[in-house]
Specification:
single chain; 313 residues; alpha+beta; 2 domains; 4-stranded antiparallel beta sheet; 14 helices; 14% strand
Length: 313
């Protein structure tokens, strides 16, 4: 039997090697670092595809007997063939190409029946004590009202300055990373690039640190930052799976964010039509310089939604 191990955090490599060496099981069995899938040892591989886990894998000949939060294990007894292995974890699949040595995540298409309905909006607005038109205005401003790109991927925007801040909290050498990956880890906001590149950027960032990367992107219809995952989910990974599942899940995440943000002040501002306060709490304190039309857009979209609901065609 042969096994393939993926590190959730690329920085855990040395710690895992130490554990392997200290475990008597590995005295004769040994391990082959990044030889089974060598393309995974570098970000920006010529085989790069969205979902690549760079710098975070090695092959094993014997199943590990210890558990480590930094590792995910996939055995070769799963689905596979002569050239490709498929290892299923929850709703996602790790696809490993033996010929090129490339590995990437594969996700299911979102379920069409899980799209948000008008009744969903009405029910959620009632629970929150706000007008559905206020929610519609935010959705239109943040994502033009839809939670998925045409290819079925959830709409995201990767924020490199949030990646910098989150890694800094983990005592990572962010200055070195900023120098090596300025587009992924940077103390200065910006450098977003087109929408089509966001999932590729996220894939590269998660090769550095998966948890920080998932928290550094805004997700779905309402573009709620992943770092708010604790409002509804147990982990950034659980949040990501929900955001990929449906717009209904994105609505639930949005509602949880509204309840928790600033002790309910965001809900109060929405209810009172205090759009500049909404902009500050939702888009950040620097919205006037980075996105000066944010508040006026929200106000405009709210009025248009209100007019449409009062005079439907």
């Amino acid at each position: 039997m042969e096994y393939f191990v993926v590190l959730k955090n690329a920085f855990a490599r040395e710690a895992v090697i130490k554990q392997l060496k200290s475990n008597s099981l590995w005295g004769n069995a040994g391990y082959n670092w990044a030889t089974a899938y060598p393309a995974m040892t570098r970000v920006g591989s010529p085989f790069s595809l969205p979902g690549m886990l760079g710098g975070a894998g090695f092959g094993l000949r014997t199943r590990p007997r210890f558990e480590d939060a930094n590792m995910q294990l996939f055995d070769r007894s799963g689905k596979g063939g002569a050239l490709t292995d498929y290892f299923v974890l929850a709703s996602r699949t790790l696809v490993c190409d033996r010929l090129t040595g490339f590995a990437y995540w594969e996700w299911p298409q979102p379920a069409p029946q899980q799209s948000v309905t008008q009744q969903d909006l009405l029910d959620t607005a009632k629970q929150l004590g706000i007008e559905p038109e206020a929610m519609m205005a935010i959705a239109r401003q943040e994502s033009h009202g839809g939670g998925f790109f045409k290819d079925g991927q959830p709409k995201i925007l990767f924020e490199r300055h949030r990646m910098y801040a989150l890694l800094k909290k983990e005592k990572v050498d962010v200055k070195a990373l900023e120098k090596q990956y300025p587009g992924l880890v940077n103390h200065v906001p910006g450098g977003y690039g087109p929408s089509a590149t966001q999932h590729a950027r996220l894939a590269q960032a998660r090769a550095i640190n998966e948890g920080a990367a998932l928290q550094s992107a805004s997700w779905g219809t309402y573009q709620v930052m992943g770092e708010n995952y604790r409002n509804l989910y147990t982990s950034p990974q659980a949040m990501e799976e929900a955001m990929r599942a449906s717009e209904k899940q994105q609505l639930a995440y949005f509602a949880a964010f509204l309840r928790e943000k600033a002790g309910g002040r965001l809900l109060q501002a929405l209810n009172a039509h205090q759009w500049e306060t909404v902009a500050t709490l939702y888009n950040g304190s620097h919205w006037r310089t980075q996105n000066p039309h944010y508040a006026t857009n929200i106000a405009k979209y709210y009025r248009e939604a209100k007019q449409q609901s009062q005079h439907p065609k």
